[in-house]
Design brief:
alpha/beta; three-stranded mixed sheet
Amino acid sequence: MIVITAPTGHIGSHVLDILLKPDTGAREDLRVIVRDPAKLPDSVRGRVDVVTGSHGDAETVNTAFAGADAVFWLVPPNPRAASLDAAYSGFTRAAAKAFSAHGVTHVVGVSALGRGTPVAGRAGLVTASLAMDDFIASTGVAYRALANGSFMDNVLRQVASIRDEGVFRDVVAADRAAPVVATRDIAAAAASLLLDRSWTGADEVPVLGPEDLSPVDMARIMSDVLGRPIGYERQSLDDFSAALAASGVGSAFVEGYLDMMRSKDAGLDAGVQRTRHTTSPTTFRAWCEQILKPAV
């Protein structure tokens, strides 16, 4: 039995789709934890066991993890959390107890690049995510943290400015090249680990994408694919902070985002060498052609 958290999100939905394919996950019983089962596609709802609730809730995870061998773990964003520790390790606390109580043997979690870099200890959301990884590993469960750079799919948040203004914005230097990865590739890595389960101990699995790209590189590729100029505009940290606060993000997460972006600009994501084992297949150009262009 595999339990999938956040099954309606960008990554969890891809994990679920992969595991439901006859040639990959047919031998596995699947269970999902979801707040609103109506958000599951009709084609999915009848093929999985559904536990309704939050996977941060003790009663919910105790129900969901009974009889489970493996869990896909993804902490949902909670931008109004009182602290980053509460949002990550705090949210995970009930699940960590339930892993042990129900004999869950393998957990695959979504995390971030940065461990071992000079700025990892002051990287905001990333630092909190790495602390969560350590907390899960301390339970004794076999754990793999998928260590990712920035998501290509985050560009979708800027569809309006790309379409209407021809502008793509970020807060890092225009020439700061770093790994970018498609969420579907993260899901594929997760599904492979969940199906295998021959691994032991705790470790990271970097998922880097096929190349490092700077914001200028990304704007150039978007221009090529969309057939019109897309420029990069570097946003100040003050403007970025103000925009987050205006959208309702709490002070702890505002500071967490700022610390994370400062650290990314200082090379947070540059600590892992790209090899055939850490390289995922989807190029940014392919992602733009398949995902961004229809959205724009």
